[in-house]
């Protein structure tokens, strides 16, 4: 069997309830190595929930999830060693210094202290925040914190990367570097789950786009495929169409009218 | 929004605000929002098995202040000269208020998050700052009122209505004195140092205050014994600088007819100094205060060498005392967190300091000052009163439950996604770090002090008490709520800490009794030591393995 075509992640009929609310209504998905998946959907569609289930942060779901061919319901922690995650909310033990935090995370992933230290400092230097290595994270700006989270998620060279609004707070230059990093990683067979509300970015970087609405995936394919199917020019328009939203113009006009007190 | 009564009281002073160039209408609006938010503030509680509390915590705490005020006001009943009494009384009230100001309201005064919300709006900085200070002022006044209420009643009962009339303006002045002197002090510190340093200074000051106030309460009885002599007050140069005498003087002047120059001068101080501080603050400081606050988040890079050598030292220790890889990692992590997190230190260190002081306090109680120090020490030397150290043991063991808490508990999401094979190693590493970082140093201090009093013969006893402390810590962890280190809000632990403390005290009491039994019957102590060690080993290897990672699904569900 061709190793490249082997699914690295598969989800079958994933369902999830929070109390009486059905958040995921049966998601099906197969992902192969080297894909960059743009995982999009309106607020509350269930994107973060899916990712949190995949990461083992949230339990209590129904369905079958396999990562690296292994059912993640089991007790094994092995699969987590090959996963990286950049959360949307940058909650971090910010009383620690960057160095302390990174070596803590890196060592858990199995790197030695020297390895982490060296790697972390070099990565921070590339992101131009090396001077802050021994500073407490409380003193970091938003962009610096985001860079730190990105480095923390990549230190152990994971095979699957989950990114939730990873560009949050990064400046234009860092954004360019980061996009290039993603392309490089994908070329080397890493799989990337990219979740964002910024359609332009998703459209450009994703090799495959999955659109979630109301706990179901309503679209799945390359940008080209989606474009053909829906007769729209941009991902933004496809998004609007598939989520059944076409009144933006009317709402906007009304909005401005109210502002001007007409 | 509600039109609070408090606001209507503030309205009475609107003229003063306007004279300082404050836009009163806007300030009132900000204040109204702040009061509304205070009312709705519900402590977030991570554990779903704890019911969220809706009671107004502040109102509850006021009752505690009334109780404290009652104890302090007992001084007013003693047959001392009025000036002396009031001096002690106000001394304690000011100390209490200062403690509250520095520990509870520093964060409000130094807040810069709010600034990002308010200052982009057309609000001038003076008005913003006035709202902030008034907000604190309101709370301090309420607390001062609560503390003073018993004193006010007792005082006016004993000295008549004039006492009651003199009192309220005093409270206003005291609050002003405390707030403005603190603000100016912070301003000066920020002028010379960076924000990190200020936070450290505040942190250690808070810890110091907490320890001192604890000592005062414990030794108050002793104070009576010392003061039970004829008190003849003669003003010295330094007594002009005692804030408590500024506020005590008017009582002596009016109620005792003491018209000596000293009392008049000092009494005038009590009125003039708060006003001077107020005008310095609004005239000079307030404008720059907010600017200086910007420094709070700035930090100068620590020296690389210092950091590197500290890490090296830590690594060596971790390698010696930790077996597993994960255990080692969490040893270092816990050590770093305990060293760095100020909010946690603030909750933890006062009780740790208390643990070191507690046995001393009991010792001092048993020393009779009237008989003479040497004789009492000689009497203690041969006895078994060193078992007081078990008080430290109980406090230390209880406080070990604090490792599960942190200010940044949301960051605990990493536990769920990191590949941790044996969660039990997390606890082991964390416990070891706690022991190395806090327990051992405290026992070293205790050992030095107590062997100085009792002689080297009690060394095995201290070792036994240390072992028993460690045993209690492990039992607390196994029986307790088993949350991961640094994964809970401080509030989460508040609810069961009383239960933990009771259980620990009981256990500790039994340990003490057995220890006493051994010592008083002359049974060789090594038997007990062996029992203690084997219990620790059993709990460590068998009991600890029952621990599992507790998932925090509920919290995530709420967030969604």
List the helices and strands and how they pair.
The complex is a heterodimer of chains A (262) and B (560).
Chain A: E1 7-18, E2 21-32, E3 36-40, H1 47-55, E4 62-67, E5 70-71, E6 83-86, H2 98-108, H3 113-126, H4 142-154, E7 160-164, H5 172-187, E8 191-195, H6 199-205, E9 208-213, E10 216-221, H7 223-230, H8 235-242, H9 248-259
Parallel strand pairs in A: 3-8, 3-9, 6-7, 7-8
Antiparallel strand pairs in A: 1-2, 1-4, 4-5, 9-10
Chain B: H1 5-11, H2 14-19, H3 24-40, H4 57-73, H5 82-109, H6 113-118, H7 125-159, H8 161-192, H9 195-227, H10 243-255, H11 261-293, H12 304-321, H13 325-340, H14 342-366, H15 373-381, H16 389-399, H17 413-417, H18 423-454, H19 459-479, H20 490-521, H21 525-543, H22 553-559
Provide the succession of SSEs of chain B. Answer: HHHHHHHHHHHHHHHHHHHHHH
Low-confidence stretches of chain A: none
Major β-sheet annotation of chain B? none
CATH superfamily of chain A: P-loop containing nucleotide triphosphate hydrolases
**Helix/strand/pairing category of chain A:** alpha/beta
The CATH architecture of chain A = 3-Layer(aba) Sandwich
Number of helices of chain A: 9
How would you explain this protein's 3D organization?
The complex is a heterodimer of chains A (262) and B (560). Chain A is of the alpha/beta class. Chain A has a single domain (7-91, 157-260), classed as P-loop containing nucleotide triphosphate hydrolases (Rossmann fold), CATH 3.40.50. Chain A contains nine helices and ten strands. In chain A, the strands form two sheets. In chain A, strands 6-7-8-3-9-10 form a six-stranded mixed β-sheet, with helices on both faces. A four-stranded antiparallel β-sheet of chain A has the order 2-1-4-5, covered by helices on one side. In chain A, a hairpin with a 2-residue loop joins strand 4 (62-67) and strand 5. In chain A, helix 2 (98-108) crosses helix 3 (113-126). The radius of gyration of chain A is 20 Å and the shape is globular. With 560 residues, chain B is mainly α. Chain B is built from 22 helices and no strands. Chain B is globular, with a radius of gyration of 27 Å. Mean pLDDT of chain B is 80; it is low at 42-55 and 551-560.
């Amino acid at each position: 069997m061709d190793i490249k075509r082997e699914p690295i992640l598969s989800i079958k009929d994933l369902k999830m309830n929070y109390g009486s609310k059905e958040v995921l209504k049966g998601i099906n998905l197969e992902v192969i190595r080297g894909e960059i998946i743009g995982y999009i959907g309106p607020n509350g569609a269930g994107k973060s929930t899916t990712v949190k289930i995949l990461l083992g942060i949230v339990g209590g779901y129904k369905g079958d999830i396999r990562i690296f061919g292994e059912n993640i319901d089991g007790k094994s922690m092995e699969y987590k060693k090959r996963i990286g995650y950049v959360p949307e909310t940058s909650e971090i033990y910010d009383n620690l210094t960057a160095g302390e935090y990174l070596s803590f995370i890196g060592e858990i992933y199995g790197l030695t202290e020297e390895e982490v230290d060296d790697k972390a400092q070099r990565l921070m230097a590339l992101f131009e925040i090396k001077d802050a290595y021994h500073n407490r994270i409380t003193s970091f700006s938003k962009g610096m914190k985001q860079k730190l989270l990105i480095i923390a998620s990549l230190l152990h060279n994971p095979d699957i990367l989950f990114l939730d609004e990873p560009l949050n707070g990064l400046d234009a230059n860092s954004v360019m570097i980061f996009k290039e990093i993603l392309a490089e990683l994908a070329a080397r067979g890493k799989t990337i789950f990219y979740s964002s509300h910024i359609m332009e970015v998703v459209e450009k970087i994703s090799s495959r786009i999955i659109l979630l609405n109301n706990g179901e995936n309503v679209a799945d394919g390359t940008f080209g495929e989606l474009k053909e199917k829906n007769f729209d020019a941009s991902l933004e328009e496809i998004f609007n169409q598939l989520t059944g939203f076409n009144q933006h113009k009317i709402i906007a006009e009304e909005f401005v009218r109210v502002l001007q007190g007409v | 929004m509600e039109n609070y009564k408090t606001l209507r009281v503030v309205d009475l002073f609107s003229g003063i605000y306007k004279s300082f160039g404050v836009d009163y209408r806007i300030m009132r609006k900000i204040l109204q929002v702040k009061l509304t938010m205070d009312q709705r503030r519900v402590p977030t509680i991570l554990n779903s098995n704890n019911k969220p509390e809706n009671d107004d915590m502040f109102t509850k705490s006021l009752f505690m202040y009334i109780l404290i005020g009652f104890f302090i006001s007992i001084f007013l009943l003693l047959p001392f000269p009025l000036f002396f009494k009031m001096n002690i009384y106000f001394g304690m009230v000011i100390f209490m208020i200062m403690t509250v100001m520095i520990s509870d309201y520093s964060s409000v005064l130094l807040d810069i998050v709010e600034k990002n919300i308010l200052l982009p709006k057309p609000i001038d900085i003076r008005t913003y700052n006035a709202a902030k200070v008034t907000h604190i002022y309101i709370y301090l006044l309420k607390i001062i009122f609560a503390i003073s209420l018993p004193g006010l009643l007792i005082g006016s009962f004993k000295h008549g209505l004039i006492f009651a009339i003199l009192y309220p303006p005093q409270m206003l002045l005291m609050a002003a004195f405390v707030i403005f002197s603190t603000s100016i002090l912070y301003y000066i510190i920020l002028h010379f140092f960076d924000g990190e340093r200020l936070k450290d200074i505040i942190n250690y000051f808070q810890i110091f205050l907490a320890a001192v106030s604890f000592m005062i309460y414990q030794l108050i009885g002793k104070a009576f014994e010392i003061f039970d002599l004829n008190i003849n007050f003669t003003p010295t140069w330094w007594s002009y600088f005692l804030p408590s005498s500024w506020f005590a003087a008017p009582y002596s002047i009016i109620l005792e007819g003491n018209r000596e120059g000293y009392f008049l001068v000092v009494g005038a101080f009590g009125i003039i100094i708060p006003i001077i501080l107020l005008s310095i603050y609004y005239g000079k400081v307030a404008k720059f205060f907010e600017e200086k606050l910007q420094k709070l988040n700035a930090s100068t890079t620590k020296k690389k060498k210092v950091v590197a050598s500290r890490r090296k030292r830590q690594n060596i220790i971790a390698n010696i005392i930790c077996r597993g890889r994960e255990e080692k990692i969490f040893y270092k992590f816990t050590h770093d967190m305990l060293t760095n997190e100020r909010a946690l230190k603030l909750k933890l260190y006062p009780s740790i300091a208390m643990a070191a002081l507690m046995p001393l306090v009991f010792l001092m109680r048993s020393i009779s000052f009237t008989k003479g120090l040497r004789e009492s020490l000689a009497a203690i030397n041969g006895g078994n009163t060193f078992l007081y150290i078990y008080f430290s043991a109980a406090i230390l063991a209880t406080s070990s439950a604090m490792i599960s808490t942190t200010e940044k508990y949301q960051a605990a999401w990493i536990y769920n996604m990191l590949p941790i094979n044996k969660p039990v190693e997390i606890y082991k590493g964390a416990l070891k770090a706690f022991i190395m970082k806090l327990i051992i140093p405290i026992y070293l201090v205790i050992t030095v002090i107590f062997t100085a009093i009792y002689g080297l013969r009690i060394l095995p006893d201290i070792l036994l008490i240390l072992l028993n402390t460690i045993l209690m810590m492990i039992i607390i962890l196994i029986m307790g709520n088993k949350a991961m280190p640094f994964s809970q809000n401080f509030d989460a632990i508040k609810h069961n800490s009383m239960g933990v403390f009771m259980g620990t005290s009981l256990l500790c009491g039994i340990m003490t009794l057995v220890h006493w039994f051994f010592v008083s019957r002359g049974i060789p102590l090594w038997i007990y030591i062996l029992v203690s060690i084997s219990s620790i080993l059993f709990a460590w290897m068998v009991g600890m393995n029952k621990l599992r990672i507790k998932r925090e699904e509920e919290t995530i569900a709420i967030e969604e």
